[in-house]
C-alpha cells in the first residue's frame, strides 16, 4: 500500500519542533567557591539583548554562619550592571547597550583560617535573548493560545539565529577587509624593501668602483 504524502505544513512544524528540542533550555552552572577566593564567568552577548539571571549561594556544611559572598556583574569597560554584597539568593536583569564581553564575579568573604574551610556552593542560572523572555506572562498579557505562544517563541528564536548569522557575516567581512589591508601593506613594504636593497647594492657598486680607481687597481 503506497504511503500518502504528509499534509502541507507538517514538515515545517516538525522542523520547528526539532529546532526547539535542539536548542533546549539552558542549565544552571554550579561550582565551589573557596574562602577568600574570587571566581568569574564571562560571556559575549549581542547588543539590545535582555539578560536575566538567578543565583543562590549555599553556606558551607557544618558552618555556624551563613553564606558570605559578593556578586558583581560588569562589562569590559568596568561599568557595574549589578552588584550585591552579602549575596545569598536573588535575581537580576539588565539590557545590553552594545555587543560586549560581560563578567559575573563571585567573591567569597569567608576567612581562610588555620584549618580547612568548606567551600560554598554557588548556583548561577543566567539566560539571555529568547531564553530570558517570560512567555507565560506574554501569553497572559496578550491573551495568546498555547500554539500562538510556541509560534511566538519560534519567531523570536528564528530572529535570534538570523541576527547571529548576520553578525558572523559582518565579522567575516571585517576580518577579510583587515586581511586584504594587511596583505596590501605587506606588498608595499616588500616593494619598498626591494627598492632599498637595489639602491644600496647600486651605491655599493659605484662606491667600490671609485675606490678601486682611486687606488689605481682598475682603469
UniProtKB/TrEMBL annotation:
Transmembrane segments: 186-208
Leader sequence residues: 1-28
Domain of life: Eukaryota
Residue span, GOLD domain: 38-193
Cellular compartments annotated: Endoplasmic reticulum membrane; Membrane
Membrane-related topology note: Single-pass type I membrane protein
One Gene Ontology term, aspect cellular component: endoplasmic reticulum membrane
Keyword Ubl conjugation: no
Keywords linked to the UniProt accession: Endoplasmic reticulum, Membrane, Signal, Transmembrane, Transmembrane helix
Family, similarity comment: Belongs to the EMP24/GP25L family.
Protein name stated in the entry: Transmembrane p24 trafficking protein 10
Organism of origin: Dromaius novaehollandiae
Amino acid at each position: 500500500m503506497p504511503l500518502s504524502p504528509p499534509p502541507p505544513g507538517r514538515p515545517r512544524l516538525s522542523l520547528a519542533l526539532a529546532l526547539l528540542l535542539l536548542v533546549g533550555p539552558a542549565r544552571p552552572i554550579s561550582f565551589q567557591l573557596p574562602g577568600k577566593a574570587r571566581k568569574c564567568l564571562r560571556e559575549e552577548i549581542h547588543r539590545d539583548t535582555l539578560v536575566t539571571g538567578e543565583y543562590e549561594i549555599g553556606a558551607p556544611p557544618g558552618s555556624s554562619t551563613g553564606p558570605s559572598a559578593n556578586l558583581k556583574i560588569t562589562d569590559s569597560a568596568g561599568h557595574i550592571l549589578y552588584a550585591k554584597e552579602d549575596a545569598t539568593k536573588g535575581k537580576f536583569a539588565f539590557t545590553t547597550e552594545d555587543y560586549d564581553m560581560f563578567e559575573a564575579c563571585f567573591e567569597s568573604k569567608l576567612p581562610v583560617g588555620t584549618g580547612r574551610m568548606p567551600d560554598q556552593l554557588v548556583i548561577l542560572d543566567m539566560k539571555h535573548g529568547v531564553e530570558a523572555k517570560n512567555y507565560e506572562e506574554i501569553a497572559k498579557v496578550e491573551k495568546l493560545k498555547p500554539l500562538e505562544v510556541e509560534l511566538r517563541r519560534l519567531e523570536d528564536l528564528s530572529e535570534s539565529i538570523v541576527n547571529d548569522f548576520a553578525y558572523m557575516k559582518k565579522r567575516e567581512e571585517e576580518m577579510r577587509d583587515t586581511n586584504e589591508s594587511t596583505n596590501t601593506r605587506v606588498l608595499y613594504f616588500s616593494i619598498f624593501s626591494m627598492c632599498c636593497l637595489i639602491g644600496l647594492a647600486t651605491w655599493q657598486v659605484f662606491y667600490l668602483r671609485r675606490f678601486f680607481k682611486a687606488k689605481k687597481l682598475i682603469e
